[in-house]
Amino acid sequence: MLTQQAIDAFTALTGTTPDGVWAGPGRINLIGEHTDYNDGYVLPFALPQAACVAASARIDGRWRFRSVDLDETVELGVDGLVPGTSGWHSYLAGVVWALREAGHDVGGADLVLTSDVPLGAGLSSSAAIECAVLTALIDLNGLDIAPMERAKLARVAENAYVGAPTGLLDQAASTLCEADHALFLDCRTLDTEQVPLAVTETGLEILVVDTRTRHSHVDGEYAARRASCEDACRVLGVPALRDVIDLDDALARLPEVQARRVRHVVTENQRVLDSITALGAGDYAELGRLMTASHASMRDDYEITETSVDLAVETALAAGALGARMTGGGFGGCVLALVGVDQVDEVAAAVRRAFASAGLGEPVTFLARPSAGARRLV
Description:
Elements: H1 2-14, E1 20-31, E2 41-57, E3 63-67, E4 72-76, H2 90-101, E5 109-115, H3 125-140, H4 147-162, H5 169-176, E6 181-186, E7 192-196, E8 204-210, H6 220-236, H7 247-252, H8 256-281, H9 284-300, H10 307-318, E9 323-327, E10 334-340, H11 344-357, E11 364-367, E12 375-376
Parallel strand pairs: 3-5
Antiparallel strand pairs: 1-2, 1-12, 2-5, 2-6, 3-4, 6-7, 8-10, 8-11, 9-10
Helix pairs in contact: 2-3, 2-4, 3-4, 3-5, 4-5, 6-8, 8-9, 10-11
C-alpha cells in the first residue's frame, strides 16, 4: 500500500513511472540506550513500518524532493546542499551531500517520500528516511558501497548535515537488520551478529506503546547527555565509557550527576550482553527483568524518561508484562513491553485506561515484528 502510494505520487509529480521504489525501516531498540556514542553495545531490530522512496535519475544535476505526507516539494542544485539547513528535506539532501563529500559520483534525481514510521516516537523515523534515500541513490548511480559503510554515510547525513548528534545505532539497524532477528552491534569495532528473536514461537509478543509524546534529537537534552559522558571520560582518562572497568572507583571520582550518567551507560552495556545470553537460553523472564532494569536506569540515572513513558511501563508491568522499557533517545516516544500473546489486549487496555485517568491523550499500540533492513521493493 505504501509502495503504491509512492508510485502514484511520483507519477503525479513527474508524469512518468519511477525507476524503482526503496524502503528504509524504522527500528526499535530492544535494549542498549545511549550506549552507541559511548562505544558500547546495542540490540535493535527493524520494524515493518518504513520510509518509502520512489525515485528516478535526472540528467540536469538537480534533486527534487517530494513529501507525500506533508504535500511539499523542494528542488535543489549543488549550491543548495548546505549543511545546517532546516526542514524535512534536510534528511534527504543530507544523504546526497554525504555521498558527494565521500567522493561518490551522485547525479540528480527525483525522489518522492512517504512513511508510516511515527515521527518523534523514538522509532528512528529520520534514519528510515536517510537509509531509504541512500539505498535508492546507490542503486540509481550504480555505486558499490558495503552495508556498514552505508550506515556510516547515513549517520554523516544526520550528524554533519542535519545537526543531530546521534550515534550509529539507528542507521545500522535500518541498514543491516534481518527479519526475525535482532542486531547485536559493537559500536566500537562495528562487529555485528544476527541474534534470533522469535518471541512469537514462545507464546510472547513485543507490544509497543506509542505515548504520542514527541521529542527531537536536535534539542539540547540529548546533546547534554552526550557531553556529560565525554566530560566523564576526560576525568577518568578512558577513551570511552565502555572502557570503565571498576565502576565503583569511577563513580567515586565524579560529581553526583555525572556519576549517575556513567552508571547508566556501564550497566546498560552489561544488560545488552546479558540479554543476548538470555535470548540464547530462551529465558524470556530474564530478558523481561533486564528490560525493566534498563528503564529504571534511564529514569533514575540518565533522567531521560518522562511522565507518559513511566506510566506506560508501570501499567504494563502491573498488568502482567514480563518486562517493559522506554526505547529511543528519550523525553517521550515509545515503550515496549514483553507480554504473553493472550495478554496483549489486556495490557494495551490497561495502559489506555491509565492514560485516560491521568488526563493524557490516548496512546497508540501495535505489535513489533522483527523485519528486514533497507532494500529495493520494486
